[in-house]
From TrEMBL:
SMART domains: PDZ, TSPc. One of its GO terms (biological process) is signal transduction. This is Peptidase, S41 family. Residues 452-473 are annotated as: Disordered. It comes from Oxalobacter formigenes OXCC13. Pfam families: CtpB_N-like, PDZ_6, Peptidase_S41. Gene3D superfamilies: 2-enoyl-CoA Hydratase, Chain A, domain 1, 2.30.42.10, 3.30.750.44. InterPro entries: ClpP/crotonase-like_dom_sf (IPR029045), CtpA/B_N (IPR055210), PDZ (IPR001478), PDZ_6 (IPR041489), PDZ_sf (IPR036034), Peptidase_S41A (IPR004447), Tail-specific_protease (IPR005151).
């Protein structure tokens, strides 16, 4: 029996070593593979054997090994992860801008899911779901105090599958129950409009594969109707990032050709790179330059970029590039500070590892990681202050976050206990700002700046600003 158990451990050890070797080979390509720590791998095999023989109930081999891989990768930093079939599919949907779902933009209110807007020509739109509707149940299960992310995942799913929504509507006495069939939803990451004569608002909510072409289309349409645009507000607030070519393309819209947009640095030779405002870096495989359709005026029009603590990764690349080249005034609050590169390394047809492989640097060589972009003009979300944003986490608050790589980032508490309690109380009354409207305080301050009028600045400065007094307001 002992020999049989020992043989099982040896087989498991061989499998683990094989997995490690194959992952290292695919990830390192021609780089020499590092020696495997055999003693530690034997210990891992011993633990595997103990769980199989002694745990209170049987556990599948696949679960143990998958969880071991997942835990190993997740221990590195907050953005490295093992991607199973579902997670890999969700990642692809996010970058491609399409997914199986209902077609509703949602938020939260009083613990329920609030419909911000149904997307035109989607199941939700055709079923008559209206802005302001509160979704109280999904397939009969209450969404009260369910996280918004969990509710969104429940509403998404494979096309041609059904889900039943229970809706509370203002001035309707009884709940409305609607069964919808999911379809493939195309999400547009770009919005635009003229805020007032001469001043355009361009909103990018996420950097996806179609983002650059979509933004070019929006800009061209605005200029076709308004040839004499005096200023542009590029709104990147709460934009969590996305694909690198999208960020390079958006920055290239406003920068001269061949300008440096961003650089990266890591262990692998291919991670040491500089990316320029050229079609080969943003146009994809076709190399047809979508920026060739742009009106020439966009290269010289005054620009304000709006950012906040929710602006991360690709958003910070764009803001940092335009700031370093002095092409735009960055306005709002300090960004999230996610300045690391994640590379997808396939393990099988349906699984992969998302691994942090480099750090991003702005054209002047500033590391974004754990610092973010400090705006030229610090402006709070409202005239009264930054509201609930004061409670939101930044990269430097995350456990196991990657260091800045150039100098130490001190992450001091931004609020004392009394201030936090006060802010939590005010957060209960908080209503999300509808971006792009006259009630959007930061947008109105951006317009003031473009017009040469006074701007109401924040009374609070980030820690990093104290060490950067050379930047002029």
């Amino acid at each position: 029996m002992r020999n049989k158990f020992r043989n099982i451990l040896l087989v498991v050890l061989g499998v683990i070593i094989g997995v490690f070797a194959s992952v290292q080979f695919s990830a390192m390509a021609q780089k020499q593979t590092a020696p495997l720590p055999l003693d530690e791998l034997r210990q891992l095999a011993d633990v595997f054997g103990l769980i199989k023989s002694d745990y209170v109930e049987p556990v599948e081999d696949k679960k143990l090994l998958t969880d071991a891989i997942s835990g190993m990768v997740a221990s590195l930093d907050p953005h490295s992860a093992y991607l199973d079939k579902k997670a890999l599919q969700e990642l692809k949907e996010g970058t491609q801008g399409k997914f199986g779902g209902l077609g509703i933009e949602v938020g939260t209110e009083d613990g329920y899911v609030k419909v911000i807007s149904p997307i035109e020509d989607t199941p939700a739109y055709r079923a008559g779901i209206k802005p302001g509707d509160l979704i109280t149940k999904l397939d009969g299960v209450s969404v009260k105090d369910m996280t918004l992310d969990a509710a969104v995942k429940k509403m998404r799913g494979d096309p041609n599958t059904k889900i039943t929504l229970t809706i509370a509507r203002k001035n309707v006495n009884k709940p409305i129950v609607i069964t919808l069939v999911r379809e493939e939803i195309q999400v547009k990451s770009v919005k635009s409009k003229m805020i007032e004569p001469g001043y355009a608002w361009l909103r990018v909510s996420m950097f996806q594969e179609p983002t650059v072409e979509d933004l070019v289309t929006h800009i061209s349409k605005l200029y076709a109707k308004n040839p004499k645009i005096k200023g542009v507000v590029l709104d990147l607030r709460n934009d969590p990032g996305g694909i690198l070519p999208g960020a390079i393309g958006v920055a290239s819209i406003f920068l001269p050709q061949d300008s440096v947009v961003v650089s990266t640095n890591g262990q692998l030779p291919e991670s040491k790179a500089v990316f320029y405002a050229r079609p080969e870096y943003y146009a994809g495989r076709t190399l047809n330059d979508p920026l060739a359709k742009l009106p020439a005026q966009i290269k010289n029009v005054p620009v304000v970029v709006l950012v906040n603590i929710g602006s991360a990764s690709a958003s910070e690349i764009v803001a940092g590039a335009l700031q370093d080249h002095k092409r735009a005034t960055i306005m709002g609050t300090q960004t999230f500070g996610k300045g690391s590169v994640q590379t997808i390394r396939p393990l099988s047809k349906d699984t992969a590892v998302k691994l942090t492989t480099a750090r991003y640097y702005t054209p002047s060589g500033r590391s974004i990681q754990a610092k973010g972009i400090v705006p030229d003009l610090m402006v709070d979300e409202t005239a009264e202050g930054d509201g609930i944003n004061g409670l939101r986490l930044r990269e430097a608050d995350l456990s196991k976050h990657l260091t800045n790589g150039t100098d130490e980032v001190k992450n001091e508490d931004r609020l004392n206990q009394d201030e936090e309690i006060k802010l939590l109380e005010s957060a209960k009354k908080y209503k999300p700002i509808e971006y792009g409207t006259k009630k959007d305080f930061q947008l109105m301050q951006a317009l003031n700046h473009l017009k040469g009028k006074p701007v109401q600045l924040s009374k609070v400065k980030p820690e990093e600003k104290k060490n950067d007094e050379t930047r002029k307001k």
